[in-house]
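Sample intake — Putative pre-16S rRNA nuclease
Collected from: Opitutus terrae
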Amino acid sequence: MRCLGIDYGTRRIGLAYGDELGVATPLPALVEADPAKRWQSLLATARQRRVTDLVVGHPLNMDDTAGPKAKEAEAVAARLRTELAGVDVHLVDERLTSYEAEATISKTQRRAVRASGVIDSRAATLILQDFLDQRFPPPLPHPAE
């Protein structure tokens, strides 16, 4: 299993990679200004890494409803299923991952870092790690004898 985590946005696409070892690692975000080039870079990354699973963040509202951003993620997932036939595409709840990722960066650096896509890739890492943790739960400790 080779997974690509995706935090899809209209300006940047955060990426992360993980496999059966169960550890998600951030990749450089796609920050091209042209959305078509950004999309092509996403497809190229998936092909180069020969991913078997794409894990797309699904930003549901706090009340579990799907707002405009969630519907956009659903459309992205559908497009990926079409353009990368044979690759499994999963939608994973990503509520608060961007907030959590941003919280790891000092307030004075957030504005500069945001444009680089670092926050987006950290969010993608959190999304993918959640998926991997569900697939490969950590082993239970052995009881002391």
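Post-analysis note: The chain has one domain: 2-135.
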